[in-house]
């Protein structure tokens, strides 16, 4: 069994900024507490069997840190897509300051690569080792990651 979970709301999420490595907001911390409670209520033997895999980014670590489990694993491969020069910007700011990039991303989201950043295709290649490990696991795994990464993982398993 694999559980996919997006991290709780981060300070950047609340400001509609992409990327970054910000901490959880109070809303995000409440989500983490509810997730911890959900695991206790719904995953029998979590402390003996559940592995929690998260990215190395603060918002994912903070979301996962109090979940009862057998093992925590931090994967750099589970980090959010690198938005390059657009990191810490809103989509509105990108449209204003880099209109050609904004349009290129709209036309081909899968292949579009942020300047000095990544594309979804890059993320797919990056998460391949995670997918191989997931397929070999015999015990439950909860993956706590980011929107772009989870889209790629969902796509693989769909």
Automatic annotation (TrEMBL):
In the record, what terms sit under GO molecular function?
6-phosphofructo-2-kinase activity; ATP binding; fructose-2,6-bisphosphate 2-phosphatase activity
A GO biological process held by the record: fructose 2,6-bisphosphate metabolic process
SUPFAM superfamilies given for it?
Phosphoglycerate mutase-like (SSF53254)
Could you name the active-site residues?
7, 96
Superkingdom of the organism of origin: Eukaryota
The entry marks the following residues as binding substrate, namely 6-13, 59, 107, 125-126
A Pfam family this chain is assigned to: His_Phos_1
Gene Ontology cellular-component terms for this entry are: cytosol
InterPro entries reported in the protein's UniProt record: 6Pfruct_kin, His_Pase_superF_clade-1, His_PPase_superfam
Can you say what this protein is called? Fructose-2,6-bisphosphatase
Q: What is the organism of origin for this protein? A: Vannella robusta
């Amino acid at each position: 069994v694999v559980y996919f979970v997006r991290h709780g709301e981060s300070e950047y999420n609340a400001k509609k900024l992409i990327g970054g490595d910000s901490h959880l907001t109070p809303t995000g911390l409440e989500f983490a507490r509810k997730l911890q409670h959900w695991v206790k209520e719904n995953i029998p033997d979590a402390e003996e069997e559940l592995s929690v895999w998260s990215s190395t980014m603060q918002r994912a670590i903070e979301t996962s840190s109090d979940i009862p489990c057998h093992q925590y694993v931090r994967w750099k491969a589970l980090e959010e897509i690198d938005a390059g020069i657009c990191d810490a910007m809103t989509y509105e700011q990108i449209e204003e300051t880099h209109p050609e990039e904004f349009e290129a991303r709209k036309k081909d989201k899968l292949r579009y690569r942020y300047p000095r950043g990544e594309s979804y295709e890059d993320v797919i290649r990056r998460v391949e080792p995670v997918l191989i490990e997931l397929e070999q696991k015999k015990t439950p795994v909860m993956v706590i990651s980011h929107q772009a990464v989870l889209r790629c993982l969902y796509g693989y398993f769909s």
